[in-house]
Amino acid sequence: MTVTLADVAARAQVSPATVSRVLNGNYPVAATTRERVLKAVDELDYVLNGPASALAAATSDLVGILVNDIADPFFGIMAGAIQSEIGGPGGRAGGERLAVVCNTGGSPERELTYLTLLQRQRAAAVVLTGGAMEDAAHQAAVAAKLRRLSEAGTRVVLCGRPPAPETGAVALTFDNRGGGRELTEHLLGLGHRRLGYIAGPRERTTTRHRLEGHRAALVAHGIEEDPRWTVHGRYDRQSGYEATLELLRRDPSLTAVVAANDSVALGACAALRDSGLRIPDDVSVAGFDDLPFSIDAVPALTTVRLPLAEAGARAGRVAMGREEAPAGGIATVRGELMVRGSSGGPRG
Amino acid sequence: MTVTLADVAARAQVSPATVSRVLNGNYPVAATTRERVLKAVDELDYVLNGPASALAAATSDLVGILVNDIADPFFGIMAGAIQSEIGGPGGRAGGERLAVVCNTGGSPERELTYLTLLQRQRAAAVVLTGGAMEDAAHQAAVAAKLRRLSEAGTRVVLCGRPPAPETGAVALTFDNRGGGRELTEHLLGLGHRRLGYIAGPRERTTTRHRLEGHRAALVAHGIEEDPRWTVHGRYDRQSGYEATLELLRRDPSLTAVVAANDSVALGACAALRDSGLRIPDDVSVAGFDDLPFSIDAVPALTTVRLPLAEAGARAGRVAMGREEAPAGGIATVRGELMVRGSSGGPRG
DNA sequence: AGTCGTGCAGCAAGCGCTTTCTACACAGCG
DNA sequence: CGCTGTGTAGAAAGCGCTTGCTGCACGACT
Description:
Two copies of one chain form a homodimer.
Chain A: H1 5-12, H2 16-24, H3 31-44, H4 50-57, E1 62-67, H5 73-86, E2 98-103, H6 108-120, E3 125-129, H7 136-151, E4 155-159, E5 170-174, H8 176-189, E6 195-199, H9 205-220, E7 230-232, H10 237-250, E8 256-259, H11 262-274, E9 284-286, E10 303-305, H12 308-319, E11 330-333, E12 336-338
Parallel strand pairs in A: 1-2, 1-3, 3-4, 4-5, 5-11, 6-7, 6-8, 8-9
Antiparallel strand pairs in A: 10-12
Chain A binds a DNA duplex through residues 4-6, 14-18, 20-21, 24, 27-30, 33, 48-49, 51-58.
């Protein structure tokens, strides 16, 4: 039924070994022979059997990219950049690799299962993107898996995720703490003293780091934080909307709202507008990430730009062994404060 | 070095065959034996060798999802929905499948190469999303590949993509033409008579269909279209910005701008604002797709909602054989007009 | 002219798993 | 007490490919 190497070999009047060598191009084959083989491949419409090949060669051309939410451009942009460096078809790299992105949906179990699946496929590399869960048991489980993957020769890279010590994984970590701090300092510099903070889900490293940066800025300015000023939510627009209403209810005198990310900030803007408040005249708003749509908000969003594409590209190259890993296996990627129209001095 | 089935068998004091059967659970194994095997698996930290398994069983648990641009939520949302139905880890489905999304970047070659790669892996199913290239040669090549895939037992589903006759592929097609027509009719109903249109890239089916719908509406209302009113661009924000300036330059008397999609519409809004025009007082704007951020534009975007998640979910189920394919292998998915603040009656 | 590279091609042994077919108990039956 | 049926485990033959090693020409040496 399906065409095999042997069929091609028979048609080209050579041994299967020769066909294999022509296809892999890692062994001298006479030009005329090669031609003959290629012709046969073409005529027979032969397609290599991936599993068989992977089994025999004990290697695979699969590269896995794990993302928390594929519908979120934050991950989409990174994944795209990673993938373009992985080579994938048409990429810079020579060998054709199947770069595949796996959507964990933020679920720890899924993350683990995908890791196992990739381990099963003997993936050439795995890139994990975005914040990690802070659950200790889960982190240990992931660390164990990563270690096992590394040991098996799979290159493991973390992109926008905190380092995983002793796992052999290379980490390109976003400086969420520093970015959060810088952002809040900007607001403080404008004169704001009562700032609401809409944090992401509790058990995420990203959430914690950004919040820590925010608080560090407050502390540095001698501002005592009111516990009512922090609300936790999800990383999406609706959550930002609801959280903002909640913040407003708790303390209507807030003059600024700092959001966990840009989507949340957009929701916050909508909530403020619906509450009859002007931005930034009545309340300033700040986001995080600087996703493409942030500049289109009205007013444009003040936020922290994360070099998603650059970091992803670098992660991709490291995963392919095309770029050296940073010293110590850890690099910190800094964000850049983008001051735009959504932040201004407090009213009065 | 790596643990194999045989190792597990030895430790559990059974034959490799038994271990395999325990793992696959498709053959009666005594409870006590099963326990023993499972214990050994656990102790040895055994992970099945995917390629070997796929080779022996002549099947694979890989499902491919092709998208044009992974950074675009349009595709992200569909991919996420598809993937959640595919089962993936933690999904509804029993068997664990590796649902992988492949980013073609809109390149025909990449699309073809990914298809070959998936064919190589003997993928269980393949879902192609989004518009297709209109290049005849490429379409023929893709059709040939799809046919071959179907014949080899891979289920092929097109989601938001026009049907591919004679390939055995099931198609869930978006009614881009109808949506485009409805949208423009809405604008005409408001009294607009001079409408600019920012189309997507020329060689895409989606582009053509939406434009055809737009023109059909114009024709139905007896409006003769000025060739200056149409500009082609890419499906992104910047393109929308530039195209709008161009439209304005060509004919400053336009009272409405219809965009190829929401991102383009956002760019159009920015360009209009930067040109000192108010929306919708001076110029109305309409998008397409109704991505999550569209409602946050100021004013909120009038657009056509495409049930991306629903269509994706359905495509996923069909790909898994969990839902029957529509009659004739083709279903048309309609959009829904969402009238919001960005459209209003023309000035004057 | 004899000998030794050198360049290419083939042989055959797996890679780690699945699955058919066979084998063996043991229980139930006449 | 022998026979068949049922439930469970094992032996072994591949799945389609890669690759170390062997083998054979042929030209280039001495």
